[in-house]
Amino acid sequence: MRAERRLLLCRAAAVLVLAAVPSGAWADAPASGWVVGKTADSPAAMVRTLEGVTIDYHLVPDDYDVMKVSVSPCGSGSDQPWYIKDSLSPPGETSAERLAFLRKNVLEGIHNARLNCPVPDGIEDRLLEGFDAAYAQFEKLNPDAQTH
Q1: Which distant-in-sequence residues (6+ apart) come within 8 Å of 100 by Cβ?
Q2: What is the pLDDT of residues 40-68, one digit of tens each?
Q3: Backbone angle region of 75, left / alpha / beta, with phi > 0 → left and psi within -120 to 50 → alpha
Q4: Percentages (nearest 5) of helix, strand, coil residues in the chain
Q5: Global pTM?
Q6: How many CB atoms lie within 10 A of CB 113?
Q7: Edge to edge, what strands does the sheet with 53-58 contain?
Q8: Nearest 5°: phi and psi at 66?
Q9: Which whole-number Å values give the CA distances from 81 to 41, 68, 73, 118, in the listed order?
Q10: Alpha-carbon span 148 to 101, nearest angstrom
């Protein structure tokens, strides 16, 4: 029963997110599960949720980029999500340097999540599948992202 309730909550949250994004704003999700696109608030965003863990990275115009790692629910007795949100300005002259910086931040976020919530073993590798291709799409959406 609890698992069915969680599934319904996840589906409801997905419907709400999709309803809030203008039609056609998101690119097709690559096979890896990353969704890359534009939102009303961001010219470039990339998101992936797997096994209750979500990575959300988006560009904030005229400010630092934001990376949020969240776990929902956090623990068996709680329906409350846990998250950590960081303001970032990926350093580097090349896409590969910025990508390495972001990968490191994803891993640190998942490490912090694991200190606070039960997180599936090996989720880091599974979440990062397709990350490089998703980030390449992210940078194409906003060529100024690398100087942001």
Answers
A1: 92
A2: 888 899 999 999 999 999 988 888 999 99
A3: left
A4: 45, 20, 35
A5: 0.75
A6: 22
A7: 35-37, 45-50, 53-58, 65-71, 82-88
A8: -125, 130
A9: 22, 12, 5, 12
A10: 14
